[in-house]
């Protein structure tokens, strides 16, 4: 598990095709002294398993599932990426519960200055809109952020200068693709509300935007 508080701005060092999958190597200034084989490191919000590592780098294999569901298939050598090691029981919990399991790819549709912060609008795929809530949490490229406002499946975010300095948001432009992970609690609540239908092959969720509004989840 992760918190969405970025620890390092890493860089894609190499991408190698291996048997239809990808082996990825990331350069980072993280302290790697406590990293072990099989540890998890979130890279732009994707939970990756460490298979090799050194003083200032780590490598991971990326499955077809991850390539299909995230932005990783479009990464290039030299690209900056947000890096966070898995949280410890003693970690100060400054963000929210992040699993590193990307739900969908969104698109940056508006960027503008807003006093000293930067205002972004992100269009999320319609199928995950029901999991988003105004003033709720969302993970964007691994960063724990608060949704300021929602208009259907368009969410607005304000990022302060500190976040801009510590993450890859300087690369976000109109049209940029970003990894999105909804609050894990929303996914489990939906599953619980299915009740006995959860055992069906294709259960139909009763959660809709009107349902969320009627029950106080949306303003």
From TrEMBL:
CDD domains: Riboflavin_synthase_like
Lumazine-binding repeats: 1-96, 97-193
SUPFAM superfamilies: Riboflavin synthase domain-like
Reaction(s) this enzyme catalyzes, per UniProt: 2 6,7-dimethyl-8-(1-D-ribityl)lumazine + H(+) = 5-amino-6-(D-ribitylamino)uracil + riboflavin
EC numbers on record: 2.5.1.9
Keywords: DNA-binding, Repeat, Riboflavin biosynthesis, Transferase
PROSITE patterns per UniProt: LUMAZINE_BIND
Pfam family, one: Lum_binding
Gene3D superfamilies membership: 2.40.30.20
Functional pathway: Cofactor biosynthesis; riboflavin biosynthesis; riboflavin from 2-hydroxy-3-oxobutyl phosphate and 5-amino-6-(D-ribitylamino)uracil: step 2/2
Coiled-coil parts of chain: none
Domain Lumazine-binding: 1-96, 97-193
GO molecular function, one term: riboflavin synthase activity
Enzyme kind, highest EC tier: transferase
Biological function: Catalyzes the dismutation of two molecules of 6,7-dimethyl-8-ribityllumazine, resulting in the formation of riboflavin and 5-amino-6-(D-ribitylamino)uracil.
PANTHER family: RIBOFLAVIN SYNTHASE, RIBOFLAVIN SYNTHASE ALPHA CHAIN
Name of the protein this chain belongs to: Riboflavin synthase
């Amino acid at each position: 598990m992760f918190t969405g508080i970025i620890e390092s701005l890493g860089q894609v060092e190499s991408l190698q095709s291996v048997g239809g999958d990808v082996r990825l190597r990331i350069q980072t200034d993280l302290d790697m002294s406590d990293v072990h084989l099989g540890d998890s490191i979130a890279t732009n919000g994707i939970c990756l398993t460490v298979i090799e590592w050194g003083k200032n780098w780590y490598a991971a294999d990326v499955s077809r599932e991850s390539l299909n569901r995230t932005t990783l298939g479009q990464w290039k050598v030299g690209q900056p990426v947000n890096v966070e090691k898995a949280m410890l029981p003693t970690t100060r919990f400054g963000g929210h519960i992040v699993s590193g399991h990307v739900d969908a790819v969104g698109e940056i549709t508006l960027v503008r200055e807003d006093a000293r912060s930067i205002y972004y609008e992100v269009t999320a795929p319609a199928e995950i809109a029901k999991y988003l809530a105004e003033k709720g949490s969302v993970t964007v490229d691994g960063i724990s952020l608060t949704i300021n406002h929602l208009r259907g499946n368009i969410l607005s975010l304000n990022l302060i200068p500190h976040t801009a300095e510590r993450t890859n948001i300087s690369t976000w432009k109109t049209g940029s693709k970003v990894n999105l992970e909804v609050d894990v609690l929303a996914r489990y609540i939906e599953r619980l509300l299915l009740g006995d239908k959860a055992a069906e092959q294709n259960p139909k969720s009763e959660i809709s935007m009107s349902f969320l509004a009627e029950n106080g989840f949306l303003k």
